From TrEMBL, chains A, B:
Pathway: Sulfur metabolism; hydrogen sulfide biosynthesis; sulfite from sulfate: step 2/3. It comes from the Bacteria. Its EC number is 2.7.1.25. GO terms for cellular component: cytoplasm. InterPro entries: APS (IPR002891), APS_kinase_dom (IPR059117), P-loop_NTPase (IPR027417), Sulf_AdTrans/APS_kinase (IPR050512). Signal peptide: none annotated. GO terms for molecular function: adenylylsulfate kinase activity; ATP binding; sulfate adenylyltransferase (ATP) activity. Pfam families: APS_kinase. The keyword Kinase applies. This is Adenylyl-sulfate kinase.
């Protein structure tokens, strides 16, 4: 199984990813978090945030997720993943791909902007939601409306889903 | 541990890689072969064989090898890996990188050309040893002189080395 959390900056991918990772740890099931920082750090930040570079970065993640799945370890991917064509690619390549969409309203995200990503990076790097469109997910397995519920409710919904599927 | 078999086409990377994989299987130690075909197939052959594309391909392999190593699985990489800068990168990134150089004389390889890679692809794709230089490995952990010994001798040398290191 591959768990892939998608959604714009600030949607809670890393927080929820860590909680899912802990859930599996307690059950003695091996999982591993693949997040944007791990991958960019591994490569000494050789890719930027343009559309092309984001695509290249996601493709790197995918192979790692694939080899982990092949070896019985559950990768938990925390990545914006704005491109539907790559989500389709994942759906075709993994044995059991679980796409969980952390749906966050973009205007609200910009307004709150807790991490300061929208203000700070606005004129520096291409940002998903500003310069790059977050393409609407067409085939996700689960939608979490993060604006409407707290993190524990979201977490419980995800675990319920994973236990039943 | 990451076992990385380097060497030009026809040096025996895949054959030896499979034998090492079987060795670990019999010992109930998890290992996984990462070879050029697996990676290129995973990506539906989106990269060619130019220097730039080979670099991109090797970088993809590296992250996969890294996440496997982090999860206690031994990746066995079978890849020409002609660039010393990327071998250095691997040396710095993995906890325990074992670079095994399958040294094969290029003129002899072209003369014998068992797989037909040199004749067939000569005018089609960039070939390591023809258009792209196989940079001399400067810091390998073990050199196997594949022209001077049979495959079983090479295999035994590699296993002896791995058992002692």
């Amino acid at each position: 199984m591959v768990i892939w959390l998608i959604g714009i900056s600030g949607a809670g991918k890393t927080t929820l990813g860590n909680k899912i990772h802990n859930y599996y740890k307690e059950k003695n099931i091996k999982s591993f978090i693949l997040d944007g920082d791990l991958i960019r750090n591994f490569y000494d930040n050789d890719l930027g945030f343009s559309k092309e570079d984001r695509i290249a970065n996601i493709k790197r993640i995918m192979l790692s997720a694939y080899v982990l799945e092949q070896n019985g370890i559950i990768p938990i991917v925390c990545n914006i993943s704005p491109f539907e064509s790559l989500r389709d690619f994942a759906r075709n390549k993994f044995n059991n791909y679980k796409e969980i969409y952390l749906k966050k309203d973009l205007d609200l995200a910009k307004e709150k902007d807790i991490k300061g990503v929208y203000k700070e990076h606005l004129e520096k790097t291409s940002l998903v939601g500003i310069d790059i469109i977050f393409e609407k997910p067409l085939h996700n397995n689960l939608i979490i409306e993060v604006d409407k519920e707290n993190i524990n409710t979201s977490y419980n919904k995800i675990i319920d889903y994973l236990e039943q599927n």
